[in-house]
Please model this.
Amino acid sequence: MSTTDPARSRATTRQYSEADPAPYYPGEGWVLFAGTVLAVLATLNIIEGIAAISKSNFFVGQAEFVFSNLKTWGWIILIVGLIQAVTAAGVLLRWKGIRWVGVAIAGLNSVAQLLFMPAYPLWALCLFALDMLVMYGLIAYGGRME
Model:
């Protein structure tokens, strides 16, 4: 029986294919997924932020927020979306240390979406779930590749 941790050996073991001589790192797909979803979330947050700032009529009418109003939350969501866009580019380009920024901004966005819930409840829950997947992908598999 081996004394090595199987999860650790899977994370650092390169696998080769005869058709593709480039190494494949297990979990690399999760990082690509996390970066792509982060880019999609950024796009959606930017659109949602602009819509809230312009007081678009597809948000729930007479929504009461924990603090402030729809226009303020629009600015918050817009700024978070812009930061997410830069972070998504960094994750996809494998910038050093950017995964922790990605985890932080996904966590911040998940809280912001829960606080933005009175304006668009089901949408906020969907974006919250995507934030959880981004955090999982970046925490579990976003480490250094050899």
Q: What stands out?
A: Residues 28-53 form the longest helix (26 residues). The chain has a mean pLDDT of 81.
